[in-house]
Design brief:
Layout: E1 5-19, E2 24-38, E3 41-56, H1 62-72, E4 88-96, E5 105-111, H2 125-141
Length: about 180
């Protein structure tokens, strides 16, 4: 299992499939995982790993899936899915199994950058005032936590015990 994090992957094919009781259509995009991000650098894996992205093709998921397919350079052929073959960033997250898979951990893969970027659009002034009112009301009714105690005074580290020490003749315990 790969660690959760950001990876550089190359899509190389796919399989059309269904999932769940409703047989929801999905495309399993096969990816080769080549590098992982660490300290703002790409580190090559010792051995490339094969994984898959699961892209659901339901009506509700389609607007997102379409953007992801475009980011992957999809050829448009669901019978023989192919992709541009260029590296793209993907995120691996870990998910705990449920029911019969309880106690197991699974990898979930998704594209890191697939949507259109947009500028932040703050809500209208009335929404901001409503949020501020909610915050102030909650703050007024919440019990204020007691302040943190002051940090304890710094004491020097104990000196290393010397090889010869006085024992007062009673025993070897140094107190």
């Amino acid at each position: 299992m790969l660690d959760a994090g950001l990876y550089s992957v190359v899509p190389y094919g796919g399989t059309l499939d269904t999932c769940g009781q409703k047989a929801s259509p999905l495309l399993r995009v096969h990816i080769q995982v080549n590098h992982y991000a660490q300290d703002e650098q790409w580190i090559p894996l010792d051995q490339p790993e094969q994984r898959e992205l699961r892209l659901f093709l339901t009506d509700g998921a389609w607007p997102y899936t379409e953007k992801k397919l475009r980011a992957l350079g999809f050829n448009g052929d669901f019978d023989e899915p192919r992709f541009a073959g260029e590296a793209i960033n993907a995120i691996c997250k870990h998910r705990a199994g449920k029911d019969e898979n309880a106690g197991k951990t699974f990898e979930d893969w998704d594209l890191a950058e697939w949507g259109e970027s947009r500028e932040a659009q703050p809500p209208d002034r009335e929404t901001v005032r409503l949020l501020e009112r909610k915050w102030k009301t909650a703050e007024a009714t919440d019990k204020k936590p007691a302040g943190q105690p002051a940090a304890p005074p710094r004491t020097p580290a104990p000196a290393a015990a010397s090889a010869t020490r006085e024992t007062n003749g009673a025993d070897d315990i140094p107190f």
